[in-house]
Structures
1.
Amino acid sequence: MNLLNMRIQGFKTKTTLIAALAVAGASPSVSQTVPDASVPQTGLNIPDELTIFGKNDPNVRRATAIVNGDIITGTDVSHRLALIVAANGGEVSDEEKQRLRLQVLRNLIDETLQIQEAEANEISISAEEVESTFRQVAQQNFKQDIDAFDQYLRTQGSSTDTLKRQIKGELAWNRLLRRNIQPFINVGDEEVNAIIERLNASKGTSEFRIGEIYMSASQETAPQVAENMRKILEQIRAGGSFVAYARQFSEASTAATGGDLGWVRPAQLPQTLADAAEQMQVGQVVGPIDVPGGFSILYLIDSRQVLTADPRNALLSLKQLAISFPPGTTESQAAARAEKFATATQSIKGCGAANEVAAQLGASVVDNDQVRLRDLPAALQGTIAELQIGQASQPFGSVEDGVRVLILCGRDDPQSASAPSFDAIMSRLENDRVNKRAQIYLRDLRRDAIIEYN
């Protein structure tokens, strides 16, 4: 799930390493000037009765924005948008695409401001650095060679240039934060030791591995931000990638790692998030949840007991036997053969006899001595956890994919878990504080920017 696998590099707001996907709405409307308990006040002295003169023609395409002299074109937006649409499997309505264009433009403006500020501080990112990171993206996230990845981007209506620009923006911003903010962040040893003591005192209590998408909101923008996040949640529940949404739109420091907060205890979270996490099931996504300064969407990646060995970390030695069905096999024919396969495999007496039985059944055999129980599909974990050495699981599969059984040849149970290291805890505290300063930094850049919209 990690893109760059960076810690301090994760300090960013809305731009990220790989374009992802989300649905975001237009900018919220301003409020009335007459005091009204039902309407948020902006203090901008805007009359209740107003007329908007002129209108934008959506059919006219020209340069989208000029940020302190740097141009963001409609092509820039379209290429970045194409990546988002591709991450959603191409299933994005025209209405949603229009909302996405607005969000992508805001992201590109932030990205431009970050690059400009880095250059103003004499920070440059070499083409070699960008290319190296680009290769990591292609290999780690797409498992394709560079040529295949380039072709893929073209077929999606995007380009390598737009992704490389995003990479450059993130690297430049991260380097700027490391130089201008991180040195002035102080975390005392006593703070870290206090956390370690609390962890030890909490041994056996629940902790969660959580993914978060955070978006800031003021009193005036809260309704629109909440609506945007509800649309993001709908896309994720419909099959969109939580990791990709987090990378593109989360304003937390964890955006670069797909929103992964790591392992946290309820006491470490805002109360609203803690309450939600304690009621969630692994794999569930909920939100938007009201938190100080904005809203969050939570994804419960996993759960465990603090400083207690997790049986799902057991290292297994498995032998897989599999049979396949020729084209045209009917359900009844497959069921008959699967039943015979089940009877034969359930009678196997240890892994030493498995190969002989496989030969009799015409089954293929695959051995793997390094499988963690937690890495198996959730539906299989409970079954395999209950097996004794030498026993076979019940058959599983389909007519299309064939039928398989897993035989447990060995199991090494995990040792007792230990508290995170002193350095790991200190790094996390530093990350949180740098992230807060980074958000203020970017907000100031937006306030001072000269932006022309065409």
Note: The longest strand covers residues 294-305.
2.
Amino acid sequence: MTDRADQTIKALRSGLDDLAALVRGLGEQDLARTSGASQWDVSQVLSHLGSGAEISLAGLQGALAGTGAPSGDFIRGVWARWDGMSRAERAAEFATANEALVRRFEDLDPRARQDLRIELWWPSEPLDVAGYAAMRLSEFTHHTWDVKAATDPGAALAPEAVELLLDTAGGLVGFVGKADGLGGRTASVAVRTTAPARSLGLHVGGTVTLTAAPDTPDATLEAPAEWWLRLVSGRHAPGHTPPAVRLTSATLTLDDLRRVFPGF
């Protein structure tokens, strides 16, 4: 598990360095653009990443100090402060907040990376460092795409993060998937990804779950792994769907799958 933690922390560092370099070149008009998260402008995405970094750092520090998860009052105070910032302030402060979090991850010694357990600020079992860093990597990677998609329709998730996130996507599928997106129908989908190659199944019934690849699916989805992750997280608009995505089915369409995963 230490290796997994190491790889995830390295991916966080790479992602932060990449996004921080991009943000340094953004002006006021760029920050005001609608992001890939359609209800937020680019600065609001950076605000979310900045406040999330502060809250995540408080959780990590609480685990190290034995004081537990951050309180609701602390979290609400962080959100309010970031909400009150100007666009330029959000762009400037986002990198500082995320640098503090990533450096704290990097400073963890091998024993902490293996043994530390971090309490979350909602009802859940504590996470080890690999799981906690993966939770942050998922948030950071998808919101980085939101920033890039504001000006680049062909933006893709960071390759160094995709394989790590692909192997932990099952929990997200069950959490965000909406079975009623098919209007009462059920479906079994064979999913085949590239870069990296994976073969798995998606079942939509009473719930939405990942399964082993079905022998007799109702549909077969072939897609780059990064788009499969974007599908699950709701970042799948036709204008951001590459030509390599193909769904073969007599009964199911890509728009059906988009309704199963409306985003969050």
Note: The domain at 169-260 is CATH 3.30.1050.10 (Nonspecific Lipid-transfer Protein; Chain A).
